[in-house]
Write a structure and sequence with these properties.
Strand order of the largest sheet: 3-6-9-12-15-18-21-24-27-30-32-33
CATH class of the largest domain: Mainly Beta
Number of strands: 33
Helix content: under 10%
Structural class: mainly beta
CATH architecture of the largest domain: 3 Solenoid
Strand content: 25-35%
Distance between the termini: 50 Å
CATH superfamily of the largest domain: Hexapeptide repeat proteins
């Protein structure tokens, strides 16, 4: 049995699985397939030609712990899912987030409140995009990658499995950290290989390639390969690997 609010608006050819809950003021476009046990919260806007798999939650309002650095208690705007996107199983998309057109969010991935994901981007299995992030178009964020709050990723950015980004150099032990709390920036065409760690406030410049397992503690120059702990410039990115030559 489903629970679909009479105040929800469903387009043509919408297919809904079992035990799904669609709250009031939800808007769903044409040719949408919704799986079993899906929850779509109040006001969420779902475009056309979208697939949402089992056990996914869209439009969830955030929770705040007593010691959270985020103190706002206001309800976030409804989540928005662009046309042609595919949302996998057990995905959580928070209120205030906006998913572009043609996005793939794989099983178990999460996007927190007030974040955006650009058109045709892939968010891999169990990848997490925290709150207040901006992710560009045509990016690939692979399995188990972690994009910390306040981060910005440009277009055509590649994030390999297990990459970790950080926004707190004080590890939560000092009020001093609030002065410097800052995510990372990865500019257009930047690539970060598996299990690399990017420290708080760092900028990965255009077409930089960060080698696997590196720890980046300083801004990187464009079109260079950096590697090591701490990462240092190794050599130029080969011409045939530059984004402009793809």
């Amino acid at each position: 049995m489903n629970s679909v609010s009479y105040k929800a608006k469903l387009g043509k050819n919408v297919k809904i699985g079992e035990f799904t809950v669609i709250k009031e003021k939800v808007s769903i476009g044409d040719n949408v397939i919704i799986g079993n046990n899906v929850v779509i919260h109040e006001g969420t806007k779902i475009g056309n030609n979208i697939r949402i798999d089992d056990n996914t939650v869209i439009g969830k309002q955030p929770m705040r712990s007593a010691n959270s650095i985020f103190k706002d208690d206001d309800r976030k705007d409804p989540a928005v899912i662009g046309d042609g996107s595919i949302i996998g199983a057990c995905v959580i998309i928070y209120a205030g987030s906006r998913i572009g057109k043609g996005v793939l969010m794989a099983d178990l991935s999460t996007i927190r409140e007030d974040s955006t994901v650009g058109d045709n981007t892939i968010v891999g299995r169990s990848a997490t995009i925290e709150n207040l992030c901006k992710v560009g178009a045509n990016c690939k964020i692979q399995t188990n990658a972690y994009i910390t709050a306040y981060s910005e990723l440009g277009d055509y950015v590649f994030i390999a499995p297990g990459v970790v980004t950080t926004n707190d150099n004080f590890a939560g032990r000092s009020k001093e950290r609030f002065k410097y709390h800052k995510g990372v920036i990865v500019k257009k065409g930047g690539r970060i290989a598996a299990n690399a760690t990017i420290m708080s406030g760092i900028t990965i410049n255009e077409d930089t390639l960060v080698a696997a397992g590196s720890i980046v503690t300083k801004d990187t120059p464009p079109q260079k390969i950096v590697m090591g702990s701490p990462a240092k410039v190794h050599k130029d990115v080969p011409e045939d690997q530059l984004l402009e030559n793809q």
